[in-house]
Here is the input.
Amino acid sequence: MNIPTVWKSLCMVGLSSVSFMTQLYAAEWTLTPQTQVSFDIHSMGFLIVKGRFEQIQSSMHFDTAAPQQASAQFVLDINHLNLSKPSLQNLILGEDFFYLEKYPTATFRSQEFVPLGKGHYAIKGDLTLRGVTQPVVLDTILKPNSTDPQLLDVESKTVVNRSDFGMKKAFAGIGEKVNIEVSGQWQLK
Here is the structure.
């Protein structure tokens, strides 16, 4: 094999890899089953309760070359909420908080991905709890997984006030601020 042929072969492999990566990132994604969507509530510096949603419907369209065209959404099943303190189950799922009987899901729908550099994004969107929709910004890191090219690692956080969604304010010693986090991976569909 002569030098021009080797060079041509290497260029074709490189272009194929770039094309594959472009297709990979301009695709549809879903959260892996191992990904945790959770919240925690503190009061006076102490963790009061941590909850994790066990059933999540999710989708994301994401292209690193055009993040402004990206979109993401989640539907969280409130009935499948795992709490760190099961003794608070009736209170948290009751009328004063999630009101499961009337509102069985919570949703997030993005409106805009704002690139902040090095895989860091501000994802602006609407969070709906108890039939009340409020704007939120998810502070998000999206990076290619180091061992599997079909995964994107995700760390995403925001803080909301419970009372903004019609939940009882500072009820039973449970704090007003709720930390929401997504931690895990998006997987290529």
In short: The mean pLDDT is 86. The two ends are 39 Å apart (CA to CA). The longest strand covers residues 105-117. The chain is about 15% helix and 50% strand.
